[in-house]
Amino acid sequence: MTLATYTPFDVDKFLSDALRTVGVEAGWAPACNAYEDEQGFWIQAALPGMERKDIDISVEDGLLTLKGEHKEDTSESQRTYFLREIGSGPFSRSFRLPTNVDASKASATYKDGVLTIGLPKREEAKPRRITIETA
Fold it and tell me: What is the third-level CATH fold of 28-74+88-123?
């Protein structure tokens, strides 16, 4: 008896790759990490080859949005690609923020192609230590 192995795949990526091979660009979104520590929430976006001026970050109604455009090198039109995974053109990624974020104190850095956004927690939401007094 032979067992078949089921391997799930990403339908969106499959269709996007299929369209790209026939010359239709289906859009792209940067790979991101989102995590939390005691002080706040962090989002990292992989934006290789982009300039800071081409990236826009906004927070409105509890929604953090990254927008930008990765411009193609003009010499790329003369190339024949066999594999193309680095996106180009406009992009947008949005993240719903928790209610305990102090968006007015958000910060962002861009280094080595990685955009890092820091979103501190409100002071009342941070863990605090309670001392026990002797009676």
Answer: Immunoglobulin-like (2.60.40)
